[in-house]
Amino acid sequence: MADDLSRDVQLLDRDLVAVRRDLHRHPELGYTEVRTSQLVAERLRKLGLSVRTGVAGTGVIADLEGERSGGTLLLRADMDALPVEEQSGHDFPSETRGVMHACGHDAHVSALLGAATLLSARRDRIAGRVRFLFQPAEELADGALQMIEAGALDGVDQALGAHVISPFPFGVVATRPGPFFAGIDTFEIAVVGKAGHGGLPHMSVDPIYAAAQVVTALQSSVSRETKPGEPLVVSISAISGGNASNVVVERVALQGTVRWFSQPSREHALERLQGIASGVCSALRASCEFRVLSSSPVTANAAAPVDRVVAAARATERAEVLDPGPLTVSEDFSEFTSRVPGCLFTVGAGGPTAAPHHHAFDLDERAIGLIAEIFTRATLSALRPE
Question: 361: which DSSP letter?
């Protein structure tokens, strides 16, 4: 039987979907989320909350004070979009060419605004403080750390975060204690050769050819240098260099990620990526420069917050909870869980045939209200008056 909270979520649902679609039409990349943060701040102020803007550039923080004293629980949503061209085919596409909410952060923002609305109406049931945190630049694996350095975790005792997930259908809530999402290092390999004429290859050193061999060889760091069963993923996702068909260019840049669950695995992978790239380039008379652009640790959930989220999900009476095991995707929410006990959970918004994240992504919008309800129920449990 639906309780007052479930009914309030149903009443909010149309507005939350409208907010998500508005944000979807106006996506903004990391550290440029100006319109998004303005929309967020305006809505939070209408709830009577104390709002701090400009945190780490475009981040927003709002505190809700309960009617009794207690601890502080942080609820977080990420706001940034991706440099992806809209291909979803729905009737509210991105109006910014080459930029799209291809990972569901528009839904996260809407869901957390929903939780703020629901919890603001229940101050008398809160002992302590709820901190609503809207974070920039998650896709750059940098925004969480920048907000922490700006004081976002000051006084915080625990943290919760949510992410829609395409491979699972609506109604599936996935989380687990311990390692949940992989750690990530984003790296760049610059392959340097000797420029020349495309018709005289023997008088130049072709970095495009060398880079192609590097891309292939790097996969040996997983297939031949990692213990079978040890989770490790190496991906090269961007290649740039050259703009003419008849010129041997001087420099090619490769960018990619390595995802891991143990520090020894991470250290070995980074050392071998650099060594393999250097060796291949040397054999082909080229050179290379390797650098790590950004890093985030493993997202490791604490047992008590996981238990609260699981109980909250089940209390909605429209969610099935599962432990999917560690997933080799990454989230800089890990910066929060590495400092305070926390839980990241995922909510199904697609299914086995759904479009993947970071591509022609779309989502089952029922997930928005479900996230808001889980946030609210878990918060009321964590900050229940004695």
Answer: -
